[in-house]
């Protein structure tokens, strides 16, 4: 179980589900009906879990015309104080960045943008220490890796391209524990040897964790065996049910952007 926190860990950007959520994109799985009321309750449970762990919540304004906008992670990636606004390839998703960019600039953050011909979704970016793994996927291309390298190398980050052919996004296949161990569901990881420390998890949703603090991760209730694995490694685990978002190929990371 998680421990309550009284100190703000940072700010978490979230975006309330659109009324059109059920029209969100599906690529690797079959479309299933979405229960919007349940999705809204699950989203509130997710936000409550972040708040309970000490995160201050800020909401990018909801937009019912953007079905996938709840997956706010895809629109911006934070590198210390720098907000990099992405450039989603999917025409239905690209307009999501407009409100995110305004929001982060209004918060007073420094912002940079990824521009054509580069395309990138935040779900393809995994930071581990000062390493930035960028998935080459159906959404993110080499031009985006090059633009990120130009932006980030002078700031001390090392950008590493990672082939991803079996999953929607890099972070559909892997994320990382607080100690930097990359966790992944082996059947959808192209090449685990890229990562200095790799731990295979027994369930696909078990590959997705949000680091709440150095001892605690947030993950889906759909991966109980992976949760046990993390608990055995000494972590506190907070679980949330996000089934309606998983039906749209979302995961726990996609639903927020953490500004530490
Ligand atoms: C790490 N992941 C998976 C994400 N950051 N984004 C999920 C986006 C899902 C959306 N229906 C789509 O297909 O774009």
From TrEMBL:
One of its GO terms (molecular function) is dimethylargininase activity. Signal peptide: none annotated. The active site is at 169 (proton donor), 254 (nucleophile). InterPro entries: DDAH-like. GO terms for biological process: arginine metabolic process; citrulline metabolic process; positive regulation of nitric oxide biosynthetic process. Pfam families: ADI. Keywords: Hydrolase. It comes from the Bacteria. Belongs to the DDAH family. This is Dimethylargininase. It comes from Williamsia limnetica.
